[in-house]
Amino acid sequence: MTDEITARAGREFYTFDGRILEIFGSCPNRFHIRNMDLRVTGPDRKGRRTVEISAGPPEARATQHTWHHSAEEWQRAQGLEALLEVVRATIASARENGA
């Protein structure tokens, strides 16, 4: 993947270049696909979704970052779901290829 994918959700701006996921907002974060797990949960009964990223190797996670998005934010966040799916697929591919 050589093209950058971007999305905005609430106060956060997400960008993914094929290796690095960056999330800009009140507390910016960078994650490399070979050092992270990504999980999206929801929607709950009110339509809220949660994005969780764990950094560090699977056997010894260093940190976990969580973003909560209301149903309205998720609806307005055009491209976020697709961006997160690409990130998840890239993580899986990196693991299959010996990461």
Structure keywords:
single chain, 99 residues, alpha+beta, 4-stranded antiparallel β-sheet, 3-stranded antiparallel β-sheet, 2 helices, 7 strands, globular
Structure at a glance:
Helix content is 23%, strand content 39%.
Question: Can you tell me about this structure?
Answer:
The structure is a single chain. β3 and β4 (29-32) form a beta hairpin. The strands form two sheets. A four-stranded antiparallel β-sheet has the order 1-2-3-4. A three-stranded antiparallel β-sheet has the order 5-6-7. It has helices at residues 71-76, 80-96, and strands at 5-9, 12-16, 20-24, 29-32, 36-41, 49-55, 63-69. It has 99 residues and is of the alpha+beta class. The mean pLDDT is 89. It is globular.
Helix and strand layout, with pairings?
Layout: E1 5-9, E2 12-16, E3 20-24, E4 29-32, E5 36-41, E6 49-55, E7 63-69, H1 71-76, H2 80-96
Antiparallel strand pairs: 1-2, 2-3, 3-4, 5-6, 6-7
